[in-house]
Structures are given as C-alpha cells and as structure tokens.
C-alpha cells in the first residue's frame, strides 16, 4: 500500500514538473522573438519605418491608454468576439451533431457547409452590409461565420470517428437517443470538439479584424484604422499585438479546460 501511494505521489510530482517545464518552454519562444526584435531594432538592421522597436510600440500603447480610448475599445471588441463566437458555436454544435448522427441530415447539411466554408470573409462584407446595414449586426455575423466552420468540422469528424463497437454496445443495451448522445457520442467527440473550439476562437479573432473594417466607430479596429490614416505604424502594430495577445489568452483558457475535462484519458 505504501509503495502504491509513493508511486502515485511521484507520478503526480512528475506531471506537475512536466507541466511547469512545458509552460516555461511555451513562454521561451516569445521571449526569444522579443529579444531578436530588440537587437535588430537597436542595431539598425530593422528600420523604424518598417517595424518600430518594442519600446516605441510600448510608448504608443501607453499613449492610447492615457487617452482613455484603449479600455473602451477592448471592451467593445471583446463583446463582439464573445457574442459572435457564442452564436457561431451554437450553430456549429447543433449542425455538427445533427449531420453526424443522421444520414439524411448529413446529405442535407454537410455539402452546403463544405461549400460555404470556402467563401472569403472579405468577399462577404458588401453582401452583409446590404443585408444588415453598417451597425453591429454584420460584424457579429462575420465573427460567427468565421468561428462556426472549424468547430462544425471538428465536431462532425469527432462523432464520425467514434468506435463502431461502442455504438453496437449502445444498441445491445437499448439506449435511448439521448442516452446514446450523453454516454457515448458526447464523450467520444469531446477531444476533437475542444480542438475545434481552439481553432474557432482563433478564427473569431481573425474575423474580428475583418469585421472591424466595416464602418467601425468603436473598438480596437477603430483605433487601428485611425492610426493607419495618420501613418502611425507604431499604433497599428500595437493594435495587432493586442489582437494576438487576446487570441493567445483565449487559447490558453481552452487548453486549461481541455486538461481538466480530458484528465480521464491520461494514464
């Protein structure tokens, strides 16, 4: 009993050490890039007009913060992503489950989804403006569209890859449709669905950049567009870095959720 307990503790310690080391390694790459950026900027290898130095961009960010526009812009952009992603995720989950669990619905849903996902978001902007105007609706729907397709594809693939023997067991146990979904389909498709959620969040932030080109009067895209008009490259780069940082943060949240919900699948 003592040996088993010691082995369990040591395995837990090893897991904690591995997680800490992996976290340090993930933080190392951005630090290396930042260092290289600093060196090339200060040495003159990277001209200021092409890419401002990190210190210049930091000063630009402080300037925007002192103006009082940055926090409001982040709240507006974050709200757009939250609402758009929630709408797109709801559509993706429903369509993915229905298409993957019904042959008739698969033929009715999957071909149009495969066709629509190839449409460029920029090409849809004029059409969305005609349909929804230039307020918040086209921005929200562009983000929802960008987030829906990767999540749909992963949910669809995750359900289709479930072991057929598990479905035979469900038939043998006479499980209802809801019991089959709850005990077999949802747990079996969860790993792939979480991968799809990470991809969908990335596409949501990419879609936000596109959406905020549509007559934005507030938000991070509005700050970037104004800076472009005045040739403020430092503020443009700062805005893009903020997009990237928020994308990384949301990805980290889903990674943490993934570790928590899939801990049963690890030895």
From TrEMBL:
Gene3D superfamilies per UniProt: MetI-like
What InterPro entries does its record include?
A: MetI-like, MetI-like_sf
Asked if RNA-binding is a keyword of the record, the answer is: no
Query: Which keywords label this protein?
Result: Cell membrane, Membrane, Plasmid, Transmembrane, Transmembrane helix, Transport
Q: Where in the cell is it found?
A: Cell membrane
Pfam families according to UniProt: BPD_transp_1
Instruction: Tell me a GO cellular component.
Output: plasma membrane
GO BP terms: alkanesulfonate transmembrane transport
Membrane topology value? Multi-pass membrane protein
- What residues form the membrane-spanning segments? 24-46, 81-104, 116-134, 140-159, 200-223, 235-257
**Residues of the ABC transmembrane type-1 domain:** 70-254
| UniProt main location, coarse | membrane
Q: Which family does it belong to?
A: Belongs to the binding-protein-dependent transport system permease family.
Protein name, please? ABC-type nitrate/sulfonate/bicarbonate transport system, permease component
Species per Swiss-Prot/TrEMBL record: Mycolicibacterium chubuense (strain NBB4)
């Amino acid at each position: 009993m003592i040996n088993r307990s010691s082995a369990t503790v040591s395995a837990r310690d090893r897991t904690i050490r591995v997680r800490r080391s992996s976290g340090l390694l993930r933080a190392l790459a951005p630090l290396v890039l930042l260092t290289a950026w600093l060196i090339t900027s200060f040495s003159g290898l990277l001209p200021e007009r092409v890419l401002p130095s990190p210190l210049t961009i930091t000063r630009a960010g402080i300037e925007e913060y002192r103006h009082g526009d940055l926090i409001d812009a982040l709240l507006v952009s974050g709200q757009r992503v939250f609402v758009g992603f929630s709408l797109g995720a709801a559509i993706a989950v429903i369509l993915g489950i229905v298409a993957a669990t019904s042959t008739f619905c698969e033929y009715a849903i999957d071909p149009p989804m495969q066709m629509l996902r190839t449409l460029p978001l920029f090409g849809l902007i004029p059409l969305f403006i005609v349909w929804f105007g230039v307020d918040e609706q086209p921005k929200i729907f562009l983000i929802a569209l960008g987030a829906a397709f990767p999540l749909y594809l992963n949910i669809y693939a995750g359900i289709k890859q479930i072991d057929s023997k598990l479905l035979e067991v469900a038939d043998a146990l006479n499980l209802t449709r809801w019991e089959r979904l709850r005990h077999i389909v949802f747990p079996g498709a969860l790993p792939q669905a979480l991968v799809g959620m990470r991809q969908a969040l990335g596409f949501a932030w990419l879609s936000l950049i596109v959406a905020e080109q549509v007559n934005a009067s507030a938000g991070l895209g509005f700050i970037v567009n104004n800076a472009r008009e005045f040739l403020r490259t430092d503020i443009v780069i700062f805005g893009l870095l903020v997009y990237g940082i928020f994308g990384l943060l949301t990805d980290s949240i889903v990674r943490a959720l993934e570790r928590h919900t899939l801990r049963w699948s690890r030895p």
